[in-house]
Design a protein that fits this description.
Ferritin-like, 71% helix, Ferritin, DNA binding
């Protein structure tokens, strides 16, 4: 019987292990923010009331569906970089910058919280971008650019609902 140690294959696609580690750390925060925002948006979709019910119910549904797909893209990029993706509520709670809601806010407060959440995810993606760019990690840069574009647009659309 052989006692030869099995090791994981060495990854060599032009990004150092040190750089991959930094990128994975940033993407883990992005994954946690995205999942937390998904959960908050879905909760608000279920519980929104008031004169804007139909508009917000549908708008929130579009957003949480997009976020659900994004969670998979971010997690799979982490896996592509050779690391396990965080995937528990405890891990997400430790990594996210998005604050949990207290109680059930009214529709206008839901919109405000979702603006803050969308902006938080965009900031997280933007913070990871220079790390990925410096490491010459174009796939991650592309993913981050797409995430920033979507979250900035969503924040603008939500913010417009708060104007008098």
């Amino acid at each position: 019987m052989s006692t030869k140690k099995v090791t994981a294959p060495i990854m060599d696609f032009g990004i150092s292990e040190k750089d991959r580690s930094k990128i994975v750390d940033g993407l883990s925060h992005l994954l946690a923010d995205t999942y937390t925002l998904y959960l908050k948006t879905h909760n608000f979709h279920w519980n929104v009331t008031g004169p804007m019910f139909q508009t917000l119910h549908l708008m929130f549904m579009g957003m949480y569906n997009e976020q659900w797909l994004a969670v998979d893209l971010v997690a799979e990029r982490i896996r592509s970089l050779g690391a396990p993706a965080p995937g528990t509520y405890e891990q997400f709670a430790a990594l996210t910058a998005i604050k949990a809601s207290t109680g059930l806010p009214n529709a206008k407060e839901m919109i405000r919280e979702l603006v803050e959440g969308q902006e938080a995810v965009a900031r997280t993606a933007r913070a990871v971008f220079p790390i990925a760019e410096k490491a010459n990690d174009q796939p991650t840069c592309d993913l981050l650019t797409q995430r920033m574009q979507i979250h900035e647009k969503n924040a603008w659309m939500l913010r417009s609902l708060l104007e008098e």
